[in-house]
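Structure, all two chains, one model.
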Amino acid sequence: MGFPHPSHPRETVVLSKHFGDAGARSYQGWVERGGYAGLRQALGMVPDEVTNAVKESGLRGRGGAGFPTGLKWSFMPKPSGKPHYLVCNADESEPGTFKDREIMRWTPHALIEGCAIASYAIGAHTCYIYIRGEFTEPLRIMEDAVAEAYANGALGPNVLSSGKRIDMVLHRGAGAYICGEETGLMNSLEGKRGNPRIKPPFPAQAGVFGLPTTVNNVETLAAVPHIIVRGAAWYKGLVMGSPKSPGTKLISVCGHVQKPGNYEITLGFPMKDLVFELAGGMRPGRTLKAVIPGGSSVPIMSAAEVENCPTDYENIQANGSMLGSGGMIVMDDSTDMVYQIWRLARFYAHESCAQCTQCREGTAWTTKILERILAGKGKEEDLDLLLDLSEQMTGKTICVLSDSCAAPVVSGIQKFRSEFEAYISKARKPALVAV
Amino acid sequence: MTQETVTVTIEGTRIAVPKGTTIIEAAKQAGIVVPHYCYHPSLPSPAVCRMCLVEVEKQPKLMPACVTTVTDGQVVLVESPKAKAARQSVLEFLLINHPLDCPICDQAGECELQDYVFQEGRSSTRYSEYAKRYSPVEDFGPDILYVPNRCILCTRCVRFMESVAEDPILNVSERGDRAYIGISEDQLLDHPWSGNVVDLCPVGSLLSKDFLHKARAWDLDKTASVCPGCTQGCNITIDTRDDVVVRLRPRPNLEVNRHFMCDHGRMNYRWMNRGDRIEAPLVRDGARHVATDWDAALDRFGEILRGTRGSAVILASGLASTESLGLIRRLVEGRDVTAAVQVPVGDEAPLTGIPSLALRRDRAPNVAGAELLGYGRDWAGAMAAVANAAVVIVLDAELSPDDQALLARAPGLLVLLGTVPYEGIRNATLVLPVTSMAEENGTYVNRDLRAQRYNQARSQPGMARPAWWVAGEVLAGPGPDADAPATAAQAFAMLGATWDVFTGLTYADLGFTGHVLKPNAPAGAAR
């Protein structure tokens, strides 16, 4: 079953199997659908075996960075009496991404089960789920599900009669994009301003409250029970492109497609088919212009680059962008690229936490230059200025928000320079009133 | 104690530093200042200004020198094209919204933004079309104004209040380029140590109302001194303009006050500028005082001491230098002496983040020094002893009306070394003008027995001389005499002859950070 569209035969339905099936939301319903078997099985293993299984499966972080999950877990120090924490990043603040929301809306127990397994593997007794503030419905569903899991002994002092204690706390964010960055999230969780922290120390050394912490994305954790139940080898075998990118991935397709929605693919699935077949292709009479494949923070891909690109970490990177969170923004030929890039830059300027100089001032300045170009007041040298600012905003700050602002600007100018020039030469009518 | 060291090469200079040192501190030891804003050695480092990015060999990205620790064999480039370009761009970004109002800004001349832009910034901005962000000036507290337009959000002030003062009332409010330093609602920046945020601010965003538009930084003469406010002995700089003290600021001494001083000490300078001073020696001639020259006055002082037998009382100010206290004490050597030092008291105000630092209850800088030299703190007892004393020497003590009345009735001869006149000096046989601590060189001994030098910050008024000079001349006897100390250093060196704790010590031994005295060490081992 898919949602909001019935699932396409070419999808590989694992995580999204019960999307749209309200019966899967209850504890009982989840158990009837095979739920909590993974947790039960994991509790019968040594924690390191669980970590090793995840390591062997090749599962990579689904939040954006694509870091190997099992490896991340193995960075946690051995039990030393100090509390360990698991933090589930359910902030899903990346524009264009709406996969975690659906996981929590339809299969809350999948996430709870994944969290419990991960907590067991890393020796954490407490798991925080940091849930995006705007997610009122998923929050309500998660609250009910956590209460049910406690009532049924899947959480609490004696998880599934194993004698292990795992507690779960839902923490609601307050609407800042940057709180989706793991160290900003940890500060926010501690009640501080959500400013990203300097690494090192990494979360596994000093995370939440200064204690060893692992931060994983919702989709990553929801995949864990399947790996435990069906085996690492099965998961590792789900490959259509690069063997370094196994498994399934929920792709949130939005923008100028006929059927926007979440599509679960085996990694390596051709991007062209994803857009044209699964998501229904362009509106009548329209042609594909560009795709932002991984949420708003990654470089823009031109239609030509989409043509032969398998949707996985390595191949998208080879085509000049990143898989990121899998929030795919599709744009057809009616799109004003300059306007879209300005819109993205304005988002980053609004969300910059104001710590690092390059980001605080650079995102705002970039926005103003784009605004000026759109208002028909651009100058020839503005494009070089934008590229120069973007260069200085890349790789020089604590987190990657400023890099994320620079990515669409740089790729946009490289791939759609003529559109910028049309505004500057006044061949095109201003799209914004004078600033 | 051996500490593991690592060897790094910074801009071609090889240097061995303890393991765990940050690149910025290692560079400092190699004689290289890595430009920075948010970093401060007495505050936690957030690495937010990104000004101190340096190139580290084998690292793909530029690294913030303030938080990156050195590793063995590391090669660091501060002046590489990549690092310079990054700094230039940070400066350009900072100037986007920074008003170029240096001509009316108090910070001009001691502004780190001005300095670095001048040093390596672009000659003109590429941000030209838009108005700069504008926010009105805010009143933060009794002495502090916040000018948000000039703020570069280095957050030093926020971190000082949070981690050092431990009174976290400042914060960063809003996000992106709208961000500014906020203050908790209904709160004032009135912590007893809050003035430090003005010093910490690298630009002219946090200003002292007291110093507002008083002087340009380049017109100030700066003199290394020691705060006379309490027994802590914070190292300070006395800033004078045209011989008028306009500001006191802390001077770093990691052993005493790190980089800070309290507001009590900071504001305690107006008395240094008093114009109503005793400017000439006065000798009693029947019912009135007659102004005279030093030769006559010193001879008279000598006669008084030689012409009296019996006990002596010394009433000394807590502001008096060790040299003055010591040599004045020597004048009455061999008699029955009661010597007391005056110590005003007030409430203690700790700087909680630094346990060894507080505004102390005893509000005089040289209490420990006076005690080492045989002065007691029993003021009332000393005043009582006046009734039987043959000679009473007042060393610039502030006498209450009761004390003055008691001295008026005293049978002995009264010699008064003072800075400002008051009714009671009429009763003195001899009045001698002496300098205040701002007008002389000298030494204070703080509560930890650290002897620290202070220097003359403004010229002495009229014929006033340091009290140690007066005592030295009298000790040497009438007529020209090479034995009299001509400098504070010579006066200090004379102390050792009488007090073991000073034996063998010279000004050179005190150095820049002072020298902790060891009162119980055997003679000659003070070093």
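The mean pLDDT of chain A is 95.
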